[in-house]
Specification:
The structure holds four protein chains of four kinds.
Chain B: H1 2-25, H2 29-58, H3 61-94
Chain C: H1 2-18, H2 30-51, H3 68-99, E1 105-109, H4 116-127, E2 132-138, E3 143-148, H5 158-162, H6 165-173
Antiparallel strand pairs in C: 1-3, 2-3
Chain D: H1 6-28, H2 32-57, H3 60-84
Classes of the chains: A mainly alpha, B mainly alpha, C mainly alpha, D mainly alpha.
Chain lengths: ~80, ~110, ~170, ~90
């Protein structure tokens, strides 16, 4: 494993944690859904880097398309802002 | 042939970097979309061209298959990227984001 | 019926492209050929009515895109003027990123195209070429609203903004 | 070998570093459309990274993941855009 490959792994893992933290931190629920989508697309990239393309396809389908759609519809039916 | 591939990769990295700098520097949504869409699409085209050149230069059935699949990925990227940016721009205007410092706005008042 | 058949054939050709070099019957294995035929028939049954459903405003036939000459023109357009304009657009954006000199505004263009496919092609081309980004479309008249990063006049003609693209779009899609 | 295989990983590392700035825009953007623009840029960069690393690992299946990813991430962007313009 070369140095460049290690850099890719470390940066992607840090970005996953940052995306998850942003999803918890936002009070605006649509912004939280967007950060969760970003985190899940990076999870897909991490599976890809660990040489599991089938899991990466499943994660792309579920994380990027399906979860975002379901959360957006749920936010549409309820309130957009989180309450204290 | 190797030099050509290095040049293609270099162009792609430079333009993707420009797109990201535009995303950070520009003042409002529409100008950010300008930078992000154009530069990242152009950079990704050159990445794909580099891989296609690599696949056909290596030769052999496996590498030519790789190049053909990359062409399909390039077409998917070329179709979806401008359409997505168009959707975002329209949604931004309808949700009430005004272009900052605009000299003229013919779309104002319609929706 | 024709809609289902055309969609199935296009899907089958796409499947063949993706499984190129998998076996010995020509370039493909027998399993892939049978699977592809069944799957593309199912895709045609589901999607055929959707692909060819809406009526065009101008009353032109949907099947005009089956003419290979239009696809050849499209390929020439993609490699020639479109790629050149895109390279120019990126240098333009680079200049504006570095100097920060912008004068934005939203203007209205009347390209005079009548089919949905032509308007889509023109809007996508405008998005990827120098200084312009399509924002909205007036579905009654086919007018485009374009965000222009460096407004030179507030009532531009179509040629001033997008050059020869409407001519190419008319040749390809109408 | 035509080019050094390390090159693919270096290009991929550059793209991954660009994603950091894109995520900064997702966190920082004053309005929601700004965040969507950041996410869209990130999608394009991920597809480019997947194409480059697919050639590095020398497997055709890896390029297929990139195709599927390009088509599916578009759906997510469209959903959020439809929500913002008041449809759905």
């Amino acid at each position: 494993m070369s140095a460049a490959q290690s850099i890719i792994h470390v940066v992607v893992l840090v970005l996953i944690v940052a995306g998850g933290a942003l999803a918890v931190w936002f009070k605006d629920l649509i912004s939280a859904v967007l950060s969760l989508a970003a985190a899940s697309l990076l999870v897909s990239l991490e599976f890809y880097l660990l040489q599991a393309p089938d899991v990466a396809i499943a994660e792309a389908g579920i994380g990027a398309a399906l979860t975002t759609a379901i959360y957006v519809i749920a936010v549409r039916r309820t309130r957009r802002k989180e309450e204290e | 042939m190797g030099g050509l591939i290095y040049v293609l990769f270099g162009i792609s990295v430079v333009f993707n970097g420009l797109g990201v700098i535009a995303l950070i520097r520009f003042p409002d949504v529409y100008t950010r979309l300008h930078g992000a869409t154009k530069c990242t699409t152009f950079g990704s085209i050159f990445t794909a061209l580099g891989i296609i050149a690599y696949g056909f230069a290596r030769g052999g059935a496996a590498h030519e298959t790789l190049a053909i699949h990359t062409i399909v990925a390039l077409v998917a990227l070329l179709v979806t990227n401008p359409t997505g940016s168009h959707a975002i721009a329209r949604a931004a205007h309808r949700s009430g984001v005004k272009p900052k410092g605009a000299v003229v706005d013919r779309l104002e008042g319609r929706s | 019926m024709l809609a289902i058949l055309v969609t199935a054939v296009v899907a089958f050709l796409f499947y063949l492209l993706l499984t190129l070099g998998s076996g010995s019957v020509g370039e493909w294995s027998a399993t892939e050929l049978i699977t592809g035929a069944v799957l593309s028939l199912i895709a045609g049954l589901i999607a055929g009515r959707v692909v060819f459903s809406k009526k065009e405003r101008s009353g032109k036939s949907h099947y005009r895109m089956l003419n290979p000459l239009r696809w050849l023109t499209f390929l020439v357009y993609l490699i020639g003027p479109f790629f050149f304009a895109m390279a120019r657009a990126n240098l333009d954006v680079a200049y504006r990123v570095i100097t920060g000199r912008i004068r934005p505004g939203i203007v209205r263009l009347s390209p005079g195209l009548s089919t949905d496919l032509g308007i889509t092609l023109l809007a996508n081309s405008i998005t990827l070429t120098p200084g312009t980004l399509s924002v909205d479309v007036d579905e009654g008249t086919g007018d485009l609203f374009v965000h222009w990063i460096n407004v030179k006049d507030t009532e531009p003609t179509c040629e001033a903004v997008c050059g020869s693209f409407p001519k190419w779009a008319r040749r390809i899609a109408e | 070998m035509i080019i050094d295989p390390i090159t693919f990983f270096v290009v991929g590392a550059c793209f991954v570093l660009f994603m950091v700035f894109s995520l900064i825009r997702v966190g920082l953007g004053p309005t929601t459309p700004d965040r969507v623009v950041g996410l869209d840029t990130m999608n394009t960069l991920v597809v480019a990274t997947m194409i480059v690393l697919g050639a590095a690992f020398d497997e055709v299946v890896f390029i297929d993941v990139a195709i599927i990813y390009a088509l599916l991430s578009f759906v997510g962007t469209l959903y959020v855009a439809r929500y913002l313009e008041g449809g759905l």
